[in-house]
Specification:
It is built from 5 helices and 5 strands; from the N terminus they run H-E-E-E-E-E-H-H-H-H. It is an alpha+beta fold and 167 residues long. Helix 4 packs across helix 5 (145-166). The protein is rod-shaped and about 75 Å long.
Length: 167
């Protein structure tokens, strides 16, 4: 039973972090000159990668990671299409903010709640965490005071990280 709980917690944490690399489908964005382009966003480690498809078949991408942005596109991409890509990107971001659809906020919320729950368990009951980590392998063993202290500190750190993911 204890192995099932440990495996379940591990899988839950694993899938919450894996889900942060989810991609969305293309959405049409109408530009100020009446042209329509398709925009897709993929959530990556520390940001997003946007891809803009033009009716001509050319594509442009923009990657935001932290405070750094890089972009590029098809070799046939025209100056006008580059300008349209920037406009489409800004319009798409405005639409997403207006509707409240932000994939990282949902993923961050899920991961944040999970980290807070595990962190609270480590802070409130470090013996349970010790047992899930190593105690189940040992026969009639008790955790040291140092192990309990480190589990409690680790729980506090997880809570802080979890709260930061919520905001």
């Amino acid at each position: 039973m204890k192995r099932v709980i440990l495996t379940g917690l591990t899988l839950l944490l694993f899938f919450s972090f894996i889900s942060s690399a989810a991609a969305s489908s293309y959405q049409e964005v109408t530009l100020s000159d009446g042209d329509v382009v398709e925009v897709s966003v993929t959530t990556i480690n520390n940001g997003h990668q946007y891809e803009i498809r033009f009716p001509s078949g050319n594509t442009y991408f923009w990657k935001d990671q932290g405070h750094i942005g890089t972009g590029g596109g098809s070799s046939e991409l025209t100056t006008k299409e580059r300008e349209q890509a920037n406009e489409a990107l800004n319009l798409y971001k405005q639409q997403q903010n207006a509707t409240g659809r932000n994939s990282t906020s949902l993923t961050g919320s899920i991961a944040g709640v999970i980290l807070i729950m595990v962190g609270l368990m480590g802070t409130i009951s470090p013996r349970v965490i010790w047992y899930l980590q190593i105690g189940w392998k040992l026969n009639k063993a008790e955790p040291s005071d140092l192990a309990l202290l480190f589990n409690r500190i680790g729980g506090i750190v997880l809570c802080i990280v979890g709260v930061s993911l919520l905001f």
